[in-house]
Structure formats: C-alpha cells, structure tokens
Amino acid sequence: MTTTAYEPGSDRLVAQPLEGEVSLRDASGVSWAAILAGAAGAASLSLILLVLGTGLGLSSVSPWAQSGIAATTFGISTILWITLTQIAASGMGGYLAGRLRVKWLGVHTDETYFRDTAHGFLAWSVATLVTAAMLTSAIGAIVGSGVQAGGAVAGGAATTAAAAGTGAAAAAAGTGAAAAAAGQASQSDSSPSYLVDSLFRKTVAAADPAAAASAPIAADATAAPAASSPQSASTSTAEVARIFANSLSAGAPLPADDVKYVAQVVAQRTGISQQDAEKRVTETYTKAQAKLAEAKAKATEAADTARKASAYGALWLFVSLLVGAFVASFAATFGGRHRDL
C-alpha cells in the first residue's frame, strides 16, 4: 500500500510507501535486522533445549549395575532430542526472520518467496555459527569423542604386551614371591604378576615342615637346595617376568632355553622336579598368551565400537542440522506471508 504526498519543491503529487514498507527502487534484498533477530531467538532456544536435554540425560544414567537406561536407548534418545531441538529452534528463528523483515512493494510473488526462504536460511546459519562458537568444546567432544576413545583403546591394545611384562617385573621387584602369593588374593587371574607368582607356588608336601622333617635326607647334589632369601626370591621373580615379557611382546612361543632355565628356577624354589617345573612353565606361559590375545581382542572390539559410534553420531548430527536448515527456510515463508497480510 502507498500514500501520496507533494514532491519537495514541486506541486506534483507522488506515491510514497507507508511506514514499514519500501518501494522496489529503494528495497534491499536482505533485511539483516530481521535475520539477526531470528538468529538470536534460534540460538537462545537451542541453548535452552540443549541444557534441558543434558539434564534429562544425566538424570536417566546411573553408575549402578542394572539401573538407568541402556546405552543404545540413551544414544537414540540423544539423537531424537538433538533433532527436536533443531526443528523447534530453527522454526522459531526462521519465522521471526520472515515476520520481522520489511515489506517489499512491487516484488513478484516468486521473488518474495525466494527472499523469505533465504532469510530463514541465513537466520539458521547465523544461529548455528553462534551456537557453535558458544559450545565449541561441547561440539568438539561430540564429534571427536568416538575417535579419541578409539585411538586411546587401540593404543592400549598395542602396549598390552609390554605392559604385561613390565607390570609383572615392577610388582615382583617391589614385593617378595610369598607376599605376592599371599597378600594378592583378590588380584584377578588375568594379571601378569599373578601368573608369574603362580609358577613359584609350593605343593603342600614341600611347604609342610613336618613332612620335610620326616623325609629322608638326600646326600647327592640333586636334592632341592634350601629356601632362598626374600631378596633372591624377588629378584628371580622379576627375572622370570622379564623373560615372559620378552617373548609375549614378540608374540612368539617361549624358547626352549628359556623354558629350561625358568624351570630350573621354579624347581629350586618350589622343590618340584625339573620335568614338572617345565610343564608348569609351559602351561603358565600358554595362559599368559591366551590372556594377552583376549585383551587385544577386547581392545580391538572396543576401538571398532567407538569408531562406529563416532561415525553414526556425526551422520545423525549432519541430518539434524540439515533438517534445521529446511525448517528455518520453510518457517520464514510463513512469517513473510503473515507480514504481507
């Protein structure tokens, strides 16, 4: 709509647009004030909904077993909430950008529709950039958490073999074999130091003083020597741990010379025969290899799971942002239509 007024310095009447309207000659294709207003509304609503979603998500997760929602359910709920946030915030921002723009006169209907769509898209773009700037660390964590976790787990898998040996050696160097066997009762059977300590366990007959006293005294050199001191026991345990670690890190069977040497150490400290000691060494090393292979398999599986979760998260985040852009552009056409009524 227009009104008429006298042209300055002339008696001729000319048409002039009403307040809030611009003529085609003076109109600009972009109303940045309306775009910034819509972007501010979208960013604020998006921030509020994200905070609400974080609170609801944390309240549904429990550290206790058999409590809280499952990981799959939590992931799906997060995706749905992010999508809902994008739809609500983008729709609000797009509608505001279309409703608050100036009214263009003499512009074709198709051109008006295009401009409204562009206003909604620009409002969504500015809001997304603002939100990303405010939540840079959070968005980076969402996108990169899976990759970082996968890399950390994969690195743990690569160093499992070395950690197996060095951990056992450190444990053996700090404590005696008897203290490790008696004081580490709650230690997991998969621990490398536990497996090494199990080599030096004495049988009941060998550990019973009464049985040892009643046994005939051997006069030849093949009789088991006296019990070693705690210091020598700790040293021999650390040495055996290093021997195991050297072969485990290479992924190779224990060499025959090492089997024989370790069996001699075991036989000396436990009082069992050389043949039984070699059998014990072979069985213990086989258990250590099996535990190492199991740890590597679990680490690889965890890394693959983290990689897939990161990929799915990035894809769904892309979909939700794409939906937000469409909703903002579509809502702006409604706002512009209401503005032109």
Estimated structural class: mainly alpha
Q: Return residue spans where pLDDT drops below 50 for at least 5 consecutive residues.
A: 149-190, 206-227
Beta fraction of the residues?
Answer: under 5%
Number of helical elements:
12
Q: Biggest sheet, in brief?
A: 2 strands, antiparallel
**Total number of β-strand segments?**
4
The neighbouring-strand order within the major sheet is: 1-2
Q: What number is the mean pLDDT?
A: 73
Radius of gyration: 38 Å
Distance between the termini: 11 Å
Q: What is the N-to-C order of secondary-structure elements (H for helix, E for strand)?
A: EEEHHEHHHHHHHHHH
Q: Which range best describes the helical content: under 10%, 10-25%, 25-40%, 40-55%, 55-70% or over 70%? A: over 70%
How many domains? The number is: 2
Shape: rod-shaped
Please summarize what this structure is.
The chain is mainly alpha-helical and 341 residues long. It contains 12 helices and 4 strands; from the N terminus they run βββααβαααααααααα.
Characterise the protein shown here.
The chain is mainly alpha-helical. The protein has two domains: 2-134, no CATH class; 157-212 and 226-299, no CATH class. It is built from twelve helices and four strands, in the order βββααβαααααααααα. It has helices spanning 32-60, 71-99, 109-134, 136-158, 160-174, 177-183, 192-199, 204-207, 209-214, 230-250, 256-270, 274-339; strands at residues 2-6, 13-17, 21-22, 103-104. The model is unreliable at 149-190 and 206-227 (pLDDT under 50).
